[in-house]
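ok so for the tutorial part 2 we go from a plain amino acid sequence to predicted structure tokens. step 1 is just haveing the sequence, like this:
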Amino acid sequence: MGARDYTNGARLPGSGGPDVAIRRSTVRRSLRSIERAFADIESALKRLAHRVRQAERSTGGRRGRAAGPRKAVTLTPKRRAQLKLQGAYMGYMRQLKPAQKARVKAVKERRGVEAAIRLAKSLAS
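step 2 — the prediction. this is what the tokens look like for a chain of 125 residues:
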């Protein structure tokens, strides 16, 4: 589908040309042209809506994943504790300046996450 010219070459008053009364036939032609443009837009939107519905059906309404049953996530107590530590570490690190972050990272490498969280907590407050 190529680009259409919906103006039919009609010039409106104040559009750079002389102020000349537009004939009724010119107005009718312009209105038909506008109606065609709206019809083209409507059909394009219908096609788009159809494609969106197809995509939703194929993914089950979820974004970014193929359709299929979801696996239930089970967290062990050990993993839950790790996530809690990670959240605390990240929460404190967000508050620190770059030099302080480097210092906390070094402590994390040497002495572990718990020590790094203690240091980050003291630096953040």
